Amino acid sequence: MIKLTQINEIKNLFNEVFIEAIGPNAPIIEKEIEGEKIYAYYNPNLAGFATIWEGDEIFLHFLFIKKSERRKRIGTALIKALLDYYKKPIKLKCLIKNKNALAFYKKLGAKECSYGESVDGPYVLLSIEKILDPTL
Length: 136
Description:
It is built from four helices and six strands. By secondary structure, it is α+β, with helices and mostly antiparallel strands.
């Protein structure tokens, strides 16, 4: 978990990345992550974070990496740590229009489970059981 003093860093990164992905109508982070656990990666400053909803399944709600920190295996490290911690598959929804994220998850070894529609557009439900390419 993160310290409350770090929540502003998380908010800033959320806004930066979410607005880039979704547009200026990005939701407020407090409403989006209510009831979720936050896992942050520092390098030494905040480089990225993941939020997890724990229920019958482990659901990755957000995985955000600061633009300047991308392609440094931070996303892979966060997902690997989550898989190691929970010891069960991680499910997530990825917008089909988010081609970079979809390619990343598929290279990691994510399998397509189903498709659906959201207010942000069509998505694919993915499941990650283990990381197939740790060099990402």
